[in-house]
């Protein structure tokens, strides 16, 4: 029996499970894992147009809902506006496309995925590049205008809540200043090497919960050095894991959850499904939390700079030109 997943209350009154299922890089083989996770007790799925797997998630959800094993209201589902949709007039169309693929009439949370717009040849050209391989930028991105369009989707009943992702503190403050409906969540990269303390402080001031992607530090990228080992192999993490008879991944996730941060690791197998949710069964001591906090590398710990889209840092809204 899986432990009951505690939730974080959003300003909308919704309860967002503090542990979710991340789906970046998930493809057809993920169907089994997703179905097992939902049957085991997970009630929070995070996806995005950019992940190109909404149709897979939609098909699996439809099976579970049709079978009566789950009801739609049992599952908290997050989707995201793609960068080619970052124009006020595009928001309704791209949200509807996500809903159609997910086989839903609404999402629980719709996120403004990244503040830089791009120009695709069509709605399927989600990572547009020019002949030199550089991102085709829409430098006229109007963050406030896009937010207005997202608010209209709440009014239309197609999103229960709206939020931000990969926004810096200045951009968050701009949205908060003009918002009729306040951001419900900020989703950003957070892990033990990149704790985003200052950015989380800004969110706390505005009452915006933080959801962490890459909570394990993206071990699949194999970015370790002799000075900075993979978080899964960091001696501080492995020592604490051994003392609790837990895995390094469980300690990394527990550290974030104990800070009140929502986490969305991607489980690759049944073992991960079980282990990830078991982080609710133990606690780190105050001393262990302090030691874990001490390995934070600040801005140097960032992994996801979105430069997989070449020259995106030339966009006027590129969020990572300032410290937080």
Automatic annotation (TrEMBL):
It comes from the Eukaryota. The active site is at 51 (proton donor). One of its GO terms (molecular function) is oxidoreductase activity. InterPro entries: AKR, Aldo/ket_reductase_CS, NAD(P)_OxRdtase_dom_sf, NADP_OxRdtase_dom. Keywords: NADP, Oxidoreductase. Residues 19-296 form the NADP-dependent oxidoreductase domain. Substrate binds at residue 113. Pfam families: Aldo_ket_red (PF00248). SUPFAM superfamilies: NAD(P)-linked oxidoreductase. The record marks 80 as: Lowers pKa of active site Tyr. Belongs to the aldo/keto reductase family. PANTHER family: ALDO/KETO REDUCTASE. This is NADP-dependent oxidoreductase domain-containing protein. It comes from Cherax quadricarinatus.
